[in-house]
Each structure stands twice: as structure tokens, then as C-alpha cells.
Design brief:
Layout lengths: L1 E5 L12 H6 L10 E4 L8 E2 L6 H4 L5 E8 L6 E2 L3 H10 L20 E5 L4 E7 L2 H8 L8 H7 L5 H10 L6 H10 L7 H13 L5 H6 L1 E6 L4 E4 L5 E13 L5 E2 L9 H7 L18 E3 L8 E8 L3 E4 L4 E13 L5 E4 L4 E4 L5 E14 L3
Length: about 375
């Protein structure tokens, strides 16, 4: 069974009025358009062509959630739990209503995720920078302004976790550090681009301690077709750009700043994987039609396919989505009927399809359960 999917963009404040509209070839929106969900998660199941929603087809059993994400300003700094952490949190919060402001867990699943850039430039904060490198960054700032931050980073034990806890506790003097970042952002040097990005974040969230948490994170700029995989517990925030995002079917988010929403500091620190290091960029295959984005989770797999007029057969092994992101593409299933897939829409192939054939000229992303 092949089913065309659409959904109404979610109007989170950080969303873009133009990125999704430009992708789909329409006029900019009058309101922010942040995410389009293609999945059966109860938070916003996809709309099925002809009526109804995808959860009625799948029974809510789809292991992944595919999205288009369009950010005009920074998302909240956040982490997602492991399966064990999510199950424990879900059980602990069972007495709370789903809309209770003290609730941190929306389901009992983990939420590893992969983002692939669709815009020519996609800015992200991904993972925590090694402490020695952050200390070198602080050398570029006014020494007096960052003295307390430096002291915490040079302490003993799990210094990144404890420093983040200190920053989010409200005890740190944030304003002098932000002023020092702004003062140094225009100076040449190794950290110029990072400091400029943090200064822009400070403009969007003045006085927010998450701005200084951002200063501890790896600043990454993706080009179109490049991606990053974010394992459970990895601190991250998308800053600006358009991308395809796929994750385990979950809406569990522990926030760490850059948001007016509740921040559960103890739970954030408990879920946080404070291991520092670079997050590898997954780069597209420029030689072939297919780019694989390898991830080490069973919930999902994602491929990018460039179509150049020749038929491209796809073996179906589990519920599959085809998301069109450029050009004019169509798919044919077992019934022989050709179905066009408008850019910005998806086609869902249920597990009873053995094979579909893609054709046209353009680009699609294939989402499947992990292998």
C-alpha cells in the first residue's frame, strides 16, 4: 500500500517563514513554520491523502519519526534520554497529566537523531568541546570576565557536567561573559566564527545562561547533503537552516537553555553524556546516486537518492517513507499506478509492498527501520 503524507507545519517561535515555503515553491508564510512531522507519533501524526492520519494505518508502531526542520533562530539546547532513562522517567511521572508543566517525559522511548542539511548552510551546536580547547577559546576573551568560568573548567572531577550545572543554577554572572564574547567576536583568530555565532545566540536570548553553555559546545556548519548523528545524551542545538531530520519515535526533550520553557536541571544533568569530543560530519557521496548516513541504532536508517531520469528500484523491508526534497519525482508500487510526490510531501510504503520504483529527476530521502 502506498499512501501520500502531508502535515501542517508546527509554528514554534524559532521557525522560519521562508525556508519551507521556498523548498515547496510557494510564498513565504505569515507565521513561523518550524517542523513538519511525517510519522505516527501521537503528538502530531501525519495526514493521509484522502482523510485520516497515519497512526490509524500503522497502529502507532512506526519505529521512527521523519521531519522537515526549518530554523530561523536557535532551538533550545537539549539532550534526549536512553531507553532505560526514558522508561524510568515515564514511570516516575505516571501520576502527572500529559500537559503538566512539571512533566519532562512524553513517552518511554529514547531519541537518537540524525539531521541532514537541505540548505546550503546549516548551523548547529553538537556535543561538548574538549576542555583544553575551550580554555584556549577563553584566552581570546577578557580574562577578568571569564575568570570564574575558567576556574570551574579547571576544577576536579566531571568538570563539564558540574560547570553546566553551575551555569544553569543562576549563580554565575552571565552578563560579563556575554559582553566579552561580543567584544572579541569581530577580532581575527581561530575562534572568530564560533564567537560570532555565540554572539548571535546572545542577541536572540539576552541574559540566558544557555548562551554560556553554548560557548562550551562544538560549533558546526553543515553544507547541503552533510549530516550529523546525535546519540542519546549528547548536548545539541540547531541554530539556523533547513534540514531533513529522522529520529526514534519519541518526543522526549530535556532542555538546557535558550528557551522560555521549563528546564529541569537535575534531570538534564542525569541524562547528559558529558564526554567531550568532536561530532563527525557525515558527508555525501559525490560519485554515486545514493548517500548512506550510517547510524548505530535499530530504529531508523536514512538514504539520500539523486534521480536523473532512470528508474530506481527500492526493495521494501519494513515500513518505508519517501520524502521528496527537489525536482519532480514519482513512485510506482505493486498495483502499477504511478503516484507523484510533491516536494515537501512524503509517500508511505507499508510492509506489504515488496518493491517500489522511483523515477523522475530530483532528490528524495528514503527512511526505513534500521538494519
Amino acid at each position: 500500500m502506498l499512501i501520500r503524507l502531508t502535515n501542517t507545519p508546527r509554528d514554534y517561535a524559532w521557525g522560519s517563514r521562508s525556508l519551507l515555503a521556498a523548498l515547496e515553491g510557494r510564498e513565504p508564510s505569515t507565521a513561523p513554520e518550524a517542523e513538519v512531522w511525517f510519522g505516527d507519533h501521537p503528538g502530531d501524526p501525519a495526514d493521509v491523502d484522502g482523510g485520516g492520519t497515519l497512526d490509524a494505518v500503522t497502529g502507532g508502531e512506526l519505529p521512527y519519526l521523519l521531519k522537515l526542520l526549518a530554523a530561523a533562530s536557535p532551538l533550545s539546547i537539549q539532550v534526549h534520554p536512553t531507553v532505560a532513562q526514558a522508561q524510568a522517567g515515564w514511570e516516575r511521572e505516571a501520576p502527572l497529566a500529559m500537559d503538566d508543566p512539571d512533566r519532562s517525559y512524553r513517552d518511554a522511548n529514547h531519541k537518537p537523531e540524525l539531521i541532514v542539511a537541505l540548505s546550503d548552510r546549516f548551523e548547529s551546536l553538537s556535543g561538548l568541546r574538549p576542555v583544553a580547547d575551550t580554555l584556549r577559546l577563553l584566552d581570546a576573551l577578557d580574562a577578568g570576565a571569564v575568570a570564574s568560568l575558567r576556574e570551574h573548567l579547571q576544577g576536579e572531577g566531571d568538570v563539564l557536567r558540574s560547570t553546566i550545572g553551575w551555569l544553569l543554577s543562576g549563580e554565575a554572572e552571565i552578563a560579563p561573559i556575554i559582553d566579552a564574547v561580543r567584544a572579541a567576536a569581530s577580532a581575527p583568530g581561530e575562534w572568530r566564527e564560533t564567537l560570532q555565532a555565540v554572539a548571535r545566540i546572545a542577541d536572540a536570548y539576552p541574559g540566558d545562561p544557555g548562551v554560556i553553555v553554548a560557548l562550551l559546545m562544538n560549533y558546526i556548519v553543515l553544507s547541503r547533503g552533510e549530516g550529523v548523528f546525535l546519540r542519546a545524551g549528547l548536548l545539541h542545538a540547531y541554530i539556523a537552516g533547513l534540514g531533513v531530520e529522522i529520529m526514534a519515535a519519541s518526543d522526549n526533550v530535556l532542555r538546557g537553555g535558550l528557551t522560555p520553557k521549563r528546564i529541569d536541571v537535575p534531570e538534564l544533568l542525569a541524562v547528559l553524556d558529558a564526554t567531550p569530543g568532536e561530532v563527525p560530519i557525515l558527508r555525501p557521496d559525490t560519485a554515486g546516486a545514493v548517500t548512506e548516513y550510517p547510524v548505530d541504532v535499530p530504529d531508523f536508517a536514512l538514504r539520500r537518492v539523486s534521480l536523473a531520469g532512470e528508474d530506481f528500484p527500492v526493495a521494501i523491508d519494513g515500513p518505508t517513507m519517501v520524502l521528496a526534497t527537489a525536482g519532480a519525482v514519482a513512485a510506482t508500487g505493486a498495483d502499477g499506478a504511478e503516484r507523484s510526490i510533491p516536494v515537501g510531501a512524503a509517500l508511505f510504503a507499508s510492509a506489504d509492498e515488496d518493491r517500489i520504483v522511483l523515477r523522475g529527476e530530483g532528490e528524495v530521502f528514503l527512511a526505513t527501520p534500521g538494519r
